TrEMBL record:
Pathway: Porphyrin-containing compound metabolism; siroheme biosynthesis; precorrin-2 from uroporphyrinogen III: step 1/1. PROSITE patterns: SUMT_1, SUMT_2. This is uroporphyrinogen-III C-methyltransferase. Residues 16-225 form the Tetrapyrrole methylase domain. It is an enzyme of class 2 (transferase). GO terms for molecular function: uroporphyrin-III C-methyltransferase activity. The gene is cobA. GO terms for biological process: methylation; siroheme biosynthetic process. PANTHER family: S-ADENOSYL-L-METHIONINE-DEPENDENT UROPORPHYRINOGEN III METHYLTRANSFERASE, CHLOROPLASTIC, SIROHEME SYNTHASE-RELATED. The keyword Methyltransferase applies. It holds the Pfam family TP_methylase.
Length: 260
């Protein structure tokens, strides 16, 4: 047997687990996540979580949809934090079920802080993040020996009012980028990466609704990214998987030089 994952013993005060639901397909859930769902008294889940996963929970478990949309919260985060803590304080086993991996663009930091402020050390159950599932779906590895020495995860969306992420470092040869929440910002990302010196021919795969029945995929280059998205009308959620392989820059050094 593999080592069993025992939830921390905090029964008197309840238990809070931030659980990764994976990218969508039910069988991409971890065994540990399934176990936490079976044990839960109450489950708070988001928009991107497949409600079919909730069948794993006991009949009597409460299922609460907290409906977080990308870039828009149907339930303010602070409200979710308060509810999770309030339920745990009643001695309940609370699961906060989040799409993919809870630690990747999942606002886990706020929920961890809220649990700790209530004297509860939360458990984190990792999940398969959308980038891993997207790479698997199109059979293009996230890294490639000799071609990529950096795999970075970035976002198209930041907090309202925050500056866009500095993309200049991400344009360097040898970098593979998984861009979350990027389709609405594709034109901006394309322009910023080109301006930062990434070659126009960098391959970009757009993988939408990975591991669900609605999965779609389109291939583009950096220069044709926004046009491809317009033409193919790929729906969200989607991962933009942009690579700047070293060999592309090698060719570039020997060929036309592009403004950096
Ligand atoms: N914690 C999640 C990410 C949440 S942010 C994870 O680790 O995967 C939401 C973004 O994740 C979406 O905008 C999209 O970029 C990506 N995403 C989530 N599920 C996806 C899916 N099934 N297919 C493609 N992208 C997905």
């Amino acid at each position: 047997m593999l080592p069993a994952a025992e939830p921390p013993a905090t029964e008197a005060r309840g238990h809070i687990a931030l659980v990764g639901a994976g990218p969508g397909a039910r069988d991409l859930l971890t065994l540990r996540a399934a176990q936490r769902l079976r044990e839960a008294d109450v489950i708070f889940y988001d928009r991107l979580v497949d409600p079919a996963l909730l069948h794993l929970a006991r009949t009597g478990a409460r299922r609460v949809y907290v409906g977080k949309e990308v870039g828009r919260n149907a339930w303010p985060q602070a409200h979710i934090d308060r509810l999770i803590v309030a339920e745990a304080r009643k001695g309940r086993r609370v699961v906060r079920l989040k799409s993919g991996d809870p630690s990747v663009f999942g606002r886990a930091a706020e929920e961890i802080a809220a649990a700790r402020a209530a004297g509860i050390e939360p458990e984190i159950v990792p999940g398969i993040t959308a980038a891993s599932a997207a790479a698997a779906a199109i059979r293009v590895p996230l890294t490639e020996r000799g071609e990529t020495d950096c795999f970075a995860v970035t976002t198209g969306l930041c907090r309202p009012g925050d500056p866009a992420p500095d993309r200049s470092l991400l344009a360097r040869p040898g970098t593979a980028l998984a861009i979350y929440m990027g389709i609405g910002k594709a034109a901006e990302i394309e322009a910023a990466m080109l301006a930062a010196g990434a070659p126009a021919e960098c391959p970009v795969d757009i993988v939408s609704c990975v591991s669900t029945g609605r999965e779609r995929h389109a291939s583009a280059t950096l220069a044709s990214l926004s046009e491809t998205l317009r033409r193919e009308a790929l729906p969200g959620p989607a991962i933009l998987f942009l690579r700047h392989p070293k060999s592309l820059s090698g060719r570039r050094a020997g060929g036309a030089s592009r403004a950096a």
